[in-house]
TrEMBL record, chains A, B:
It comes from Gluconacetobacter tumulisoli. InterPro entries: Homeodomain-like_sf (IPR009057), HTH_TetR (IPR001647), Tet_transcr_reg_TetR-rel_C_sf (IPR036271), TetR_C (IPR011075). Signal peptide: none annotated. Residues 6-66 form the HTH tetR-type domain. GO terms for molecular function: DNA binding. This is TetR/AcrR family transcriptional regulator. It holds the Pfam family TetR_N. Keywords: DNA-binding, Transcription, Transcription regulation. Residues 29-48 bind DNA.
DNA sequence: GGGGATTTGGAATGATCAGTCAATAATGTG
DNA sequence: CACATTATTGACTGATCATTCCAAATCCCC
């Protein structure tokens, strides 16, 4: 039949993700992307369409992995509140590299339907998991019963965005850990 | 002597700020800027040097006004905790437009010394004011005494960044208000 | 009111941008 | 082994980028 692709799609996508995380969409040139990805220019366009579609694909892959890691952290620990604490802790630990989701939202807001769709789809999954954990923690007596799960979930989402922006601004990880602890107090 | 400048520097700078807030540095073309600013192309380069210096100047002006507004909110109200609450409330109310500081940090992190300098200078002022208010609120019995003022200040800074990113992501202002309330609980 | 200084707008400039083309290389099947 | 099919490579394209040049317009001071 035909010549097979020499590179692993997910692998080069990870390289693209790394570039986009650091420089954003506008700040990442096609040349910088192909260099980091280790493929030819044409291979990029053959395999991904154009720069925007590559960005969408990168975002989708990133979101998949990120949400999965969030969920794993949330489900760890014996009590629901432990999972929530580990969820925040993991964000602190990984905050040195910029989050592609936060970067994308800051760069484009809600102005691109296809991007918005990805954010909303994954956001809903994470939000649902957070609500479930919060209700469970309330049942355990670890989260204040007069806290609305949706509000608490929104607060936690906002908190992780805040931690990531703070990290990007150069805030000491020890301070970030304190921020996470303080946030947890807010829902207790 | 010479022909006077036909435009008000601060006024065109405000127009530039509006463009940068919405599209970031890379996303704002010189053409888009001069159009929004209502001046000629050459006038931009005469008055501001180049696009990057314009960005720096815009950031500086924005930070000046923003910090001033933060401080005014913090100092309002009879009790210190009221000022902190109004500070958060103001952020919620103004979060529909993207914050230039958050945008800049997400786009460039700490990679540009001149930008970092602006962020740090204004950040220190705001941080100092927050610490002072927190100590005052602790003296009033409105903030937990076992809360370290520096940690609480970092938490509040992180919180406003989170609220702004959430707003940019399309979160309902009512939810943002709930986020602010929950955050306040974290330091009580 | 004239002259030196400076702003201004429009037309260039070179660089870089995203994206394409055409030729070459590599594969599986007949 | 040859053909059909696809991947790869590097040169190429038109558009847009930030920035500059230049000539005209405008003003203040003498």
């Amino acid at each position: 039949m035909a010549r097979p692709q020499e590179f692993d799609r997910d692998q080069v996508l990870d390289a693209a993700i790394a570039v986009f995380r650091q420089h954003g969409f506008e700040g990442s040139s096609a040349t910088a992307l192909v260099t980091a990805m280790g493929i030819g220019r044409q291979s990029l366009y053959n395999s991904f369409g154009d720069k925007w579609q590559l960005y969408r694909d990168a975002m989708h892959r990133y979101a998949t992995g990120e949400v999965e890691a969030h969920l794993a952290a949330l489900r760890s620990g014996v009590r629901a509140i432990d999972g929530i604490q580990r969820f925040l802790q993991r964000v602190v630990e990984t905050a040195q590299e910029m989050c592609l989701g936060v970067s994308s939202i800051c760069e484009f807001g809600t102005s691109h339907a296809d991007l918005l769709d990805i954010h909303e789809r994954f956001g809903k999954v994470l939000n649902a998991a957070l609500c479930e954990r919060i209700r469970r923690a309330q049942a355990d007596g670890d989260v204040s019963p007069d806290m609305k799960p949706d509000d608490a979930a929104a607060f936690l989402m906002s908190t992780i965005a805040g931690i990531r922006v703070s990290a990007r601004a150069g805030t000491d990880p020890k301070i970030l850990a304190a921020v996470a602890r303080t946030a947890l107090r807010g829902i207790r």
